[in-house]
Amino acid sequence: MDLAAPICVVGAGQSGIMAAARMRKLGFENIDILEAAAQPGGYCQSVDVDGEIYDFQSHLVIQQSFGADTAGTAIDELLREHPVPTQIEALYFVGRSDSGKPQLGVPPHFVPLFQTMTPEQTVDQLVEAWNIIERALSGKHGPGVSGLAFDRVEGETWETYRARHAPLVGEVLQGLVIYANMRRPGQPAETIININAHISGHVSQLAKLVLSLYPAQKQSLLARMPQSLVAQLSSRRPVSLSFRRGFISFLRQIADDHRLTVTVNSRVTGIEPVQPEGVRVTWTVDGEQRSAIYSRVVVSTRPAQIRDIFPEGDIHDLFAERNCPRAWTRSYLIRAREELISFPRKPDSDEPLGFWVIDPYGSYTDSDPQQAMHRITAANKQRPGPYWVCFSNSDTSISDARAWSLAKDSLFLFDDPELVAETIAEWPAYPSAAAVRDGWFDRVADIQGRHGIYFVGEILSGPTAECISSFVRDVIPQWFGPADTARPLAF
């Protein structure tokens, strides 16, 4: 393979930067990165308020795993290669008390189940779910069109799947499979479970809650748990990491370390094979149209942009809105006057641990996604001080003022929150369940590398840095490695 052949990466978000860095490690010398925005980062935005850095759209860096540390993960490899200051955040489930104030508690959708079971039955069912998950992990049962192999029978519906398991087991496993595994092809089972566990109820977090609900029976309940689960209960592994200088600074560090240059304000308008020369990429800079021929092109943009770049044909059809329905995310930076709940603190420090608020109505179901008018999904306090970042999905047909009014009404953690900054971005919605059932991922795999054009990005890899970096780490060497191994990745 000609390492001097020119390569174009379209988009300088997580996927674009990490793909280019991976190609540089393989020895490619001539890599152009074109970014439509005024800075790298893609969906991610870092905002400086009163000297503090807050990240929008990059809050899911790495999630808790079934182990004591992050060894072996792609994000750990990146942080070792490109060390930057990070800080730990932690996960807690939150509910409302009788007075309406927030309190650490059981996720609402688990309450009816817990009320029908004894503490022993609850723990036994959590252990059963844990054992099934551990078998999936040890067997490396990766996800595909049919979802992750949590002992699911081919062709089985979610209803019969749940009926075949104890109620709490079915709730935990179905939540993981529905949310994550139908939509993350080619990813290791560990990654799938780790990054999405906070949505459906991490087994170890639920176990901690059960122990807190029945303190007098703590020792007898612990005795019913396997050692691997008990070990996880006391794991200090972070649920989430954030970057003290902002996530975009991490992407810039990766680019600098690999001598990568990002050309900003460069909106790609067309990608066209011109065999045998290669692939012609056309873009605009300051109103001026430019073009160049590349040997290969890696597209890391969102589906709506892909549709614009390929105005017709099977690529346009694959990423059409009927297959990849759009969602929108409003991200708010807010100032709260006081904390309405006592937050856990780091040892020997006044700094609060990070805090997540999980809304049970904030994720997709197995049916084709129908975007709600407004859904609060999470609020995250990243560091000491009066500022908070909250994330909410919403339909942009709602005015900004109305959306903020709804958000304030939902943010019961805050007393009269003040809006400091807001950003709205199109979320790269995952393929609809109907598209997945119709073989969408297989169709994407079939076009990878055709005419020298490849596709990466969140829609294929999943949303977190761990998902994206592990996906890129695997596929780029297969696509751009030695000639005898370069081939499209089979999902």
Verbal overview:
With about 500 residues, the chain is an alpha+beta fold. It folds into three domains: about 5-45 and about 245-325 and about 430-480, FAD/NAD(P)-binding domain, CATH 3.50.50; about 105-235, no CATH class; about 325-425, no CATH class. About 35% of the residues lie in helices and about 20% in strands. It is built from 18 helices and 19 strands. The protein has helices at about 15-25, 75-80, 110-115, 120-140, 160-165, 165-180, 190-200, 205-215, 220, 225-235, 245-255, 305-310, 315-320, 400-410, 435, 440-445, 460, 465-480; strands at about 5-10, 30-35, 45-50, 50-55, 85-90, 95, 100-105, 240-245, 260-265, 265-275, 280-285, 290-295, 295-300, 325-335, 355, 375-380, 385-395, 420-425, 455. The strands form six sheets. Strands 9-2-1-13-19 form a five-stranded parallel beta sheet, with helices on one face. A five-stranded antiparallel beta sheet has the order 15-16-17-14-18, covered by helices on one side. Helix 4 packs parallel to helix 6 (about 165-180) and helix 8 packs across helix 10 (about 225-235). It is globular and about 75 Å long. The two termini are about 25 Å apart.
